[in-house]
Design goal:
The structure is a homodimer.
Chain A (H helix, E strand, L loop, with lengths): L15 H20 L3 E2 L5 E3 H4 L4 H7 L2 E2 L11 H5 L3 H8 L2 E3 L4 H10 L8 E10 L11 E10 L5 H16 L5 E7 H11 L5 H8 L2 H15 L4 H6 L10 H11 L4 H20 L5 E4 L13 E7 L8 E6 L13 E7 H10 L13 E3 L4 H16 L4 E3 L6 H10 L4 E4 L2 H6 L2 E5 L5 E4 L1 H9 L2
Parallel strand pairs in A: 1-5, 7-8, 12-13, 12-14
Antiparallel strand pairs in A: 2-4, 3-4, 5-6, 6-11, 7-9, 9-10, 10-11, 14-15, 15-16
Helix pairs in contact in A: 1-7, 1-14, 7-13, 8-13, 9-10, 12-13
Chain lengths: ~450, ~450
């Protein structure tokens, strides 16, 4: 019985058109990364489980794909877990490896492992797939690509400035206008927590604050009270509920709200540096927008926090990043501040597709198809094709001596511009009949004319 | 306690230099594939286990990396297998997905699944990693890349001819001379089996025959007798033990030896077509060599069999392939003959490295480093860097206002050709001090001169 073929949910096949369009995005990102001085590295698809587990929180641990040990893996299985049928407890004893969950932790592992070969500050980029056992939905896949650029080994805020420029550069080159680069700073959030006197309520606070547009000021306050944030605390940060206007006026407000928090003021000063310098240098098509509700990677980032949204299309974030002061510490290398940003290739793809921004991208296809009229003619064609290929003219021979209509049909379906017909008379005269499939024009020519016609088309 | 970082055995990190050199190989292969009319597809890293299992023989099944189901996987585990601690029997019930083992089976699955979107003959290429739980050794990894080009939908032998040209083209472009493209045909092997009257002895026979160079004619006969091949059978194929000389004379001999086997003669005729046409079209640096001991993928291939060796370096095969008449049948699509070849990226890398063939490959690195003398100077530098980058001049600012020596040292270590120094006087005069790190020359210039100097270097 033949199997009906299918692929695991959350994964995708990519057709020639899709691969070509994806590679176009990869190339734009790659060229910009290199233009900014980043160098490529790659890490293995799977890591030792101990490298990944515990780095992404409990939820992350669950979403990591584990690889079953090879051979008689049950011989080393945890007996108790086996008897109790405790999947969670059993896993570590039958699985030692796991698929990459993001590019940041493997990068931290790489930096520590290769620290003696690396010149710091180390600017690396990495464009590889990651895997998450998440529930698939629009823009969320179980296998997807991240494109990351990070610097480790410097605390300079010029890097924050450059990463904003890099976002702007890449989205501009992709033709994606009006992207919004949201920026916040972990120290602002810490400052707010100080002011409301409850670090443990910080997430509840930002989640509620984030709903300001939807449920209004009163709704937000109601939700905060419901989460156990005191009226007094809310009063202290009330101006946050009216924060609006441009980045400068928001920074001014924040300075007032956070006046009693050293950390908070430090955050304001860092943000001001980045925002002012970015403004002076100028962005092409993106805008940088301070957003104090931005709290992604709360346990992770220590300084700047970034998130990018495409204003024209409804889609989750298409990029994110931030500064982490001690990512490599867990692998034994202390005091290595890093900052990085990530591009979500798959979502960017969906956005560009929705906006019709792949029009320029041309599918790699032969410029010319040689019709096959039999063995002698085919050999003559292959001699010609060899010379065309040496001149970088993509060309191919229809493999079979099939009916002319079928061969012409193939050229049409593949949208090939030129067809060459070589029958007995062309063979005897060392000529070619060249047909332009768009115009229908047909002419007899020698090799030089043929080469010129197809090469410059 | 900090973990000492490491990666799973058989996997590798790739440094910027390695990634760049690997990408150089990928690009040469990719350009040639497209030049020959192949189009890219990609398939997921993991497939449903049912797609892969049973396609590579028992050994293959063992070497496939299985992915543990997510969540409470033991709740659906095979009770009997669990109680008997039978790993083999348990696997299917706790693992539904597995990592790609090669690119051919996923390709067959792709063709069947997308048959209505595909124009046949379908020429696709695919360059993706595959994973095997094999014992790592030189040139054998647990994660490695295959670069495959296949055509499905035609039985034309011109394709065999073109694949030989494609091998030759790519190895020539890589600077790898004297590669030996070995060719055989499954029908020759079937013919030999017919002649020796024992299909089940065919592998023993070819294994013994393959040792001719090492153990001589008598040694081979002794081994064959030991494997139960009769004296009578050996007498019939005795000329095989003296096969030598060029392809043409070997073909002549084979025609005699296989005169009573229709299949065998068919194989000779197919081989003759390919060998003759390749000879007439000419190869650049490779040679095509008939090798009747070549039996790779015996259960798989039905016509031509290819294997490529680098003559200058001791390394396993760096490429292989062949024709398979019914690969898609197992997924429900009959009568789809296919032929394809594969390039082993990782071994080709090792060969090129050993021969010093990466000299031309240039690491992506900044052309110019701007020294950081403080906030005002750094801002001025970033304004300049922005303009340089718009002109595609890779450039970067040293992020910190560190000691000059440290910054110059960084430029040296990264082998950056130019350094720009902007102090107060340069700032006031809107000038730059440009230092050529190779020659040591230093000069004051404006932006236009700076751009010209670094862009054309």
């Amino acid at each position: 019985m033949a199997q009906k073929p299918s692929i695991p949910k959350g994964t995708r096949d990519f057709s020639p058109t899709e691969v070509t369009q994806r590679n176009y995005i990869f190339n734009v990102i790659k060229e910009a990364f290199e233009n900014y001085g980043f160098q490529p590295i790659e890490t293995p698809s799977f890591e030792n489980s101990s490298t990944l587990m515990g780095k992404y929180g409990e939820e992350g641990d669950r979403l990591i794909f584990k690889i079953l040990n090879s051979g008689d893996y049950l011989s080393k299985a945890n007996e108790t877990a086996l008897n109790e049928k405790n999947s969670n407890a059993l896993t570590a004893s039958i699985s030692e490896k796991a698929l990459r969950y993001d590019l940041t932790v493997p990068f931290a592992r790489y930096v520590v492992q290769h620290q003696n070969e690396i010149e710091f500050p180390f600017k690396r980029y990495q464009m590889q797939p990651v895997w998450r056992a998440d529930r698939p939905q629009k823009g969320r896949f179980r296998e997807f690509y991240q494109c990351d650029a990070d610097v480790v080994g410097s605390t300079s805020l010029w890097q924050e400035v450059e990463f904003v420029q890099l976002y702007d550069d890449i989205f501009t080159k992709l033709g994606l206008k009006e992207t919004i680069i949201k920026i916040n700073n972990r120290k602002i959030l810490s400052g707010i927590a100080e002011v409301i006197g409850a670090s443990d309520k910080l997430i509840d606070f930002t989640v509620a604050l984030d709903k300001l547009d939807k449920i209004g000021k009163d709704g937000v306050i109601k939700e905060m009270l419901g989460k156990g944030i005191t009226e007094e605390a809310i009063k202290k940060v009330a101006p946050l509920l009216q924060l609006q206007g441009d980045n400068d006026s928001m920074l001014k407000e924040l300075k007032v709200i956070l006046k009693d928090s050293d950390q908070g003021l430090q955050g304001v000063s860092e943000l001001a540096f980045v925002i002012n310098n970015v403004a002076k240098l100028g962005l092409n098509t993106s805008s940088l927008k301070l957003d104090v509700t931005l709290a992604r990677g709360l346990n992770y980032y220590t300084g700047a926090i970034f998130e990018v949204a495409a204003a024209q299309v409804k889609m989750g974030s298409i990029g994110g990043g931030g500064r982490y002061d001690d990512l490599t510490g867990i692998f034994g290398l202390k005091n290595m501040s890093g900052i990085g940003i990530s591009f979500g290739l798959d979502r960017i793809y969906l956005v560009l597709e929705e906006l019709g921004l792949f029009q320029k991208v041309e599918l790699p296809k032969p410029k010319v198809l040689f019709i096959n009229f039999g063995e002698n003619e085919a050999f003559y064609c292959l001699e010609t094709i060899k010379k065309l290929r040496e001149n970088d003219v993509k060309s191919e021979l229809y493999p079979d001596n099939a009916k002319l209509k079928k061969q012409m049909n193939y050229a049409n379906k593949r949208d090939i511009n030129f067809v060459v017909l070589v029958g007995e008379s062309e063979l005897n005269e060392s000529k070619y009949t060249l047909k332009n499939m768009k115009s229908g024009d047909q002419s007899s020519c020698n090799f030089e004319t043929l080469l010129k016609a197809v090469k410059n088309s």
